[in-house]
User: Which sequence fits this backbone?
C-alpha cells in the first residue's frame, strides 16, 4: 500500500516514533512517506520525507513553558490542504486533528495514533477549550491506536492498544562519564548556567541542541542519537515520550526537570519514578545531587525491544 504517516509538529517525540513505524511498514513491503517538520538530523536520511507542519500543538518558548495566547492565535490562522493526502491508500496521523479532518474530507482511510490526543490536552486549558470541542468533533469519526506510556486516547470511535514505540541502537560511549543533555525541539533557555561542573563528568549534546562553549561539554553530530542514549551514564532532560521510550529500551537512568502544567507530564513521570529516575529543581546543586542519587543505584533494567510490530499490525487492521 501507499501509506502516509503524519507527525505532529509539536517537538520531535512524535516524529522519532513515527520514523520507527515508517521503517517497520517499509520492511513489510509498503511504500511509506513520512510527512513531518522535523529536520533530517532527527529523522535520518533513509526515509521518504515530505516537509509538513501538521498542527500547532502548544506554542513553547522552551521545553518547560507554554504560551497559550500565541497558541490560540496560531490555531485561528492554521489550515491544512486536504488534497495533499490524495493518492494514499492509508494515512496514519500522530496526532493532528487538522490532519484527521483533512483526511476525512479527502476520503483517505485514516487511523490516529498517539499516547495522548490534543482534544484531551486542550481541555486542561480554559483558553483552549473552544478548540478542544472542535478537535473532539474532528477526532470522533476515526479509529485510533493508543501508545504507552501516556494518558491514552479519548473520544475516537474505537481505540485499540498499541504499546511502546522507540528507536534503539547499540551503545556508543563518547566520554568516561557522559550525561546526554537533551531538550528536544524547543531547547532549554540558559542551559549553560544550569549545568554544574562535576569532576569527571562530560555534558554531551547532539543535534538539534546547540553547542556549549565549555571544557566539560562535548558536541556529537556523527553518532545516532539512540546510540548516545544507550551509551550514556545518565540523561538530563524533561519528561517527553521519545526520550523516555529510548531510555526505557536502553536501560539508561534519567534526571529530569519539572515540565510544569503540561497535562501529559504526570503520566510520563509515573513511569519515570517506577524506573528510579530523579526529578530535580532547575539549579546546579539539585542537578548534581540528582545525578549522584541515580548513580548510587543500579541502572534501570533495559527493556527487550519495543512493540513496533504490534503497532504496525494495529494501524493496518480495520
Assistant:
Amino acid at each position: 500500500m501507499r501509506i502516509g504517516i503524519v507527525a505532529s509538529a509539536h517537538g520531535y517525540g512524535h516524529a522519532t516514533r513515527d520514523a520507527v513505524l515508517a521503517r517497520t511498514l517499509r520492511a513489510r513491503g509498503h511504500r511509506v512517506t513520512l510527512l513531518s517538520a522535523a529536520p533530517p538530523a532527527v529523522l535520518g536520511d533513509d526515509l521518504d520525507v515530505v516537509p509538513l507542519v501538521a498542527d500547532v500543538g502548544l506554542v513553547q518558548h522552551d521545553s518547560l513553558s507554554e504560551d497559550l495566547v500565541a497558541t490560540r492565535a496560531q490555531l485561528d490562522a492554521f489550515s491544512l490542504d486536504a488534497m495533499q493526502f490524495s493518492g494514499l491508500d492509508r494515512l496514519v496521523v500522530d496526532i493532528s486533528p487538522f490532519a484527521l479532518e483533512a483526511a476525512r474530507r479527502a476520503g483517505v482511510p485514516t487511523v490516529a495514533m498517539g499516547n495522548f490526543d490534543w482534544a484531551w490536552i486542550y481541555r486542561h486549558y480554559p483558553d483552549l477549550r473552544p478548540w478542544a470541542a472542535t478537535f473532539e468533533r474532528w477526532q470522533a469519526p476515526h479509529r485510533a491506536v493508543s501508545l504507552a506510556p501516556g494518558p491514552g486516547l479519548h473520544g475516537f470511535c474505537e481505540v485499540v492498544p498499541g504499546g511502546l514505540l522507540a528507536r534503539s541502537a547499540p551503545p556508543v560511549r563518547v566520554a568516561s562519564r557522559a550525561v546526554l543533555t537533551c531538550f528536544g525541539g524547543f531547547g532549554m533557555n540558559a542551559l549553560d548556567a544550569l549545568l554544574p561542573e562535576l569532576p569527571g563528568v562530560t555534558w554531551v549534546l547532539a543535534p538539534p541542541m546547540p553547542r556549549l562553549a565549555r571544557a566539560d561539554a562535548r558536541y556529537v553530530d556523527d553518532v545516532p542519537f539512540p546510540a548516545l542514549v544507550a551509551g550514556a551514564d545518565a540523561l538530563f532532560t524533561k519528561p517527553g515520550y521519545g526520550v523516555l521510550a529510548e531510555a526505557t529500551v536502553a536501560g539508561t537512568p534519567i534526571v529530569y526537570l519539572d515540565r510544569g502544567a503540561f497535562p501529559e507530564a504526570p503520566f510520563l513521570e509515573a513511569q519515570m519514578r517506577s524506573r528510579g529516575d530523579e526529578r530535580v529543581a532547575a539549579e546546579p546543586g539539585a542537578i548534581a545531587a540528582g545525578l549522584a542519587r541515580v548513580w548510587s543505584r543500579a541502572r534501570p533494567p533495559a527493556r527487550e525491544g519495543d512493540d513496533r510490530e504490534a503497532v504496525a499490525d494495529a494501524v493496518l487492521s480495520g
